[in-house]
Amino acid sequence: MGERKLMRLFLAMLLLAGLAAAQSPDSKTLGGDAHWLFQVASGNVLKAAEKMPEEFYSFKPVDTVKSFGEIAGHVADAQYFFCGSINADGKQAPGIEKKKSKAEIVAGLKAAFAYCEAAYKATTGDNATTGVKFLNADHTRLGVLNFNSVHIYEHYGNLVTYMRIKGIVPPSSEGR
What we know:
Mean pLDDT: 87
Helix content: 55-70%
CATH class: Mainly Alpha
Order of helices and strands: HHHHEEH
Radius of gyration: 16 Å
Strand order of the largest sheet: 1-2
Shape: globular
Number of helices: 5
Low-confidence stretches: 10-25
Strand content: under 5%
Number of domains: 1
CATH superfamily: dinb family like domain
Number of strands: 2
């Protein structure tokens, strides 16, 4: 699927999610909606990482895929890639994907999501369409931040599958 088709699909999903969900206090702006989506996505990943027992962090359904811990670490490292283009501070991913312990990975996720908070909080209706370089192309701040949330949710889906295989109810399904 081409990048433009992927972005259109994401924007349609974002619109539907926004219509179906309650508004957050800052959801009246483009930047506020992007921040809300990030908070939901990152919150689910963090809760999944905290809920999964440490002995399952090395679990992979088959040898050709990443383990639960590697996926969670990949999400953490990717925050520096996506939000670094907005923050423009040169910060590099700290290699959380290579960590083995639950404590290190959870701490890495918390730090990475906090790093991205600055990019989302600084995105307003006035600058959401400001151009940034990302993946060797011109994009908007909003486009990059929304792509980040799509990426987080993509991997949350992996984490959910791993949790269900191990008989654990994922955070987004609790109480149902």
